[in-house]
Fold this sequence. Notes:
By secondary structure, the protein is mainly α. 76% of the residues lie in helices and 0% in strands.
Amino acid sequence: MADEFAKGLGIATTAGLAWMVISGWYTTPGFEDTQLIGEVPEGLGLYGNLAIVLREVFFWLAIFGMLLFWVVIPAFQKAREEYA
């Protein structure tokens, strides 16, 4: 079980850090304004739009990756042990 915990924590940490970096670049209008969750600017171009898509991917990867390794896989292993 410690192996699954470490994998879930690694995914959550890495994806969360990537989300924070991209959010800091694109959705932080100023230091005194809303940070990390501000409005997405218009007219970003191809790479800017790709970064915004990756921002959403990293957010959901952090949540679902952590839940997968902390809840789903241990529950599946426990159910398989009980069934056997």
